[in-house]
Specification:
Length: 518
């Protein structure tokens, strides 16, 4: 097995001098060397064939050496696995040092002109595990494996998942944090990204007033991942901050477009590359609800609810600005970039909302706000509504238009006369806008269907795959993996998955609300 190793993070930045794998505060270091825990009986139960091919590893997927690497039972020759040290704000509060508590970076590779870091999630304890064991369970690993790939094919910036391994070991977890822990099957996901650097990496050194290492980290990140930045001094760091912000805002606009709710938008879960990272208690909007969060830990404050995700991104970007301030020392310049972020986001977000409706006309706030109120006035499936909306024709009446999207409503009996009238008024305005558009009905449908997915990884679907996998059947994992590679296509053979959340999934654990327990 030949891999083109190109390690940089653990070669160019300073390592923790203490080699013991014990929970502790780590200073003056970017990472700690650590080896994955040897497993009792690892088994590869799924791998992302297309991505494995992209990074040049597909031909090895059936080999014993591949299994050793993606399970952590073997370390590739000449490499030194490590866990990164970082800090972060969790639910708006400063949490201090956090770090890779259950993630171990294996090595970096270069293939096809691209740079990738391979990381194992759930491969055992690190110096940053605090009171945890560093392992992960099958249910959360399936969710991360499938969602990472699903997000990629939706066109959302994301980390990727190469493989899913059953460890053969049992892991004790309290799913609902209610004092009833139970043993579950352990698993490991091999995550892949150009880098796993987070906002929290920068926050750590800023909080410790370690400007030297803060500069080293920033210079390293710019050198390897923002090579287009050629300026020097504070201008370099301002340009870096601007690019990070724009990438991050683009990412959250895509989240809103497809109805994805991350669930834990802490600064330690924010990629400096603007990638979706750390798939924990995420969820997809079933019925449209701006106040919905999938995270049980967030059930009271709903800080990370769907409608608040853009505001949280801005809050997190302010924390990153605070961290980089030492290198820039120009408050007005940073404030100017933040102000520009607001304009940048508003413009792109409004265009996204219009494009979901197949409209190129100027954004109309009242028109869009009315739609949101209508969607929330009766239980309406977001994914299905926008998909069915593409079937409207300019010659339709408002009554006909409403009839064409009926499949999106969970209970037609809930549509009272006042609610129906509100919908008819909105459709009348919508159809008038469509008649002023230059695109034909078919051209508009193609455009809308390229932006509004037909299939997303609904929580009940992931739970079905989890339940089957617990019984040793991994067929649904593969079925969903194949289905979600073409989320915008009709795929009539998978029509049964173009469906609203079933009643049994409303309150089922793993389908409605989830915890961070994994």
């Amino acid at each position: 097995m030949k891999i083109n190793i190109k390690d940089t993070f653990n070669k160019e930045l300073d390592a923790d001098k203490e080699l013991s794998n014990s929970p502790r505060q780590v200073y003056n270091s970017f990472f700690s060397f650590v080896r994955p825990k040897i497993l009792s009986n690892p088994k590869l139960i799924h791998f992302s064939e297309e991505f494995a091919n992209e990074i040049g590893l597909k031909e090895y997927a059936d080999s014993e050496e591949f299994l050793k690497i993606v399970s952590g039972t073997g370390v590739y020759d000449g490499t030194n696995p490590y866990a990164m040290c970082y800090a972060g704000h969790q639910f708006g509060n400063w949490a201090g040092q956090l770090g890779d508590g259950r993630a171990i970076n294996l090595f970096e590779i270069e293939t096809g002109g691209k740079h990738w870091t391979l990381q194992l999630k759930g491969a055992g304890p690190t110096p940053y595990s605090r009171n945890a064991d560093g392992f992960a369970v099958l249910r959360s690993s399936i969710r991360e494996h499938l969602c990472s790939e699903a997000m990629h094919y939706l066109g959302v910036p994301t980390t990727r998942s190469l493989s899913l391994v059953l460890t053969g070991d049992q892991v004790l977890r309290d799913v609902l944090y209610n004092g009833n822990p139970a043993y579950e099957k352990g698993a490991i996901v091999c995550r892949v990204a150009p880098a796993f650097i987070r906002f929290g990496n920068f926050e750590l050194f800023a909080a410790r007033k370690d400007s030297g290492n803060l500069k080293k980290l920033t210079d390293y990140t710019i050198k390897h991942f923002f090579p287009e930045i050629s300026s020097e001094g504070k201008e370099k760091y301002l340009e870096f901050y601007k690019k990070v912000g724009e990438r991050t805002l683009d990412m959250v606009i895509d989240w809103q477009r497809v109805g994805f709710v991350h669930g834990v938008m802490n600064t330690d879960n924010m990629s400096i590359l603007g990638l979706t990272i750390d798939f924990g208690p995420y969820g997809w909007l079933e019925n449209f609800d701006n106040s919905w969060t999938p995270n049980t830990t967030d059930a009271n404050g709903r800080r990370y609810r769907y409608g608040n995700q853009p505001d949280i991104v801005f809050w997190n970007l302010v924390q990153l600005a605070n961290a980089l301030y030492t290198l820039i020392d120009d408050l007005s310049a940073l404030q100017g970039i933040l102000d520009n972020f607001s304009e940048y986001f508003t413009s792109k977000y409004q265009k996204m909302l219009q494009s979901k409706l197949g409209i190129e006309a100027e954004y109309n706030a009242d028109f869009q706000d009315t739609l949101m109120r209508n969607l929330e006035s009766v239980e309406t499936d977001m994914t299905i509504f926008y998909r069915e909306l593409a079937n409207l024709e300019k010659t339709d009446s408002s009554e006909k238009a409403l009839e064409k999207v009926e499949y999106a409503f969970y209970n037609l009996e809930e549509i009272t006369e006042p609610i129906k009238n509100n919908w008819l008024i909105w459709f009348e305005k919508y159809l008038a806008l469509l008649r002023n558009e230059t695109k034909t009905d078919n051209e508009r449908k193609v455009w809308m269907n390229s932006l509004n997915p037909k299939y997303v990884l609904r929580n009940y679907m992931a739970q079905l795959a989890i339940d089957d996998a617990d019984s040793g059947n991994y067929g649904l994992i593969e079925e969903f993996y194949v289905l979600l590679q073409k989320p915008y296509n009709e795929q009539q053979q998978y029509q049964k998955w173009y469906a609203k959340r079933p009643d049994w999934a409303r309150e089922k654990i793993g389908c409605s609300m989830l915890s961070c327990s994994s």
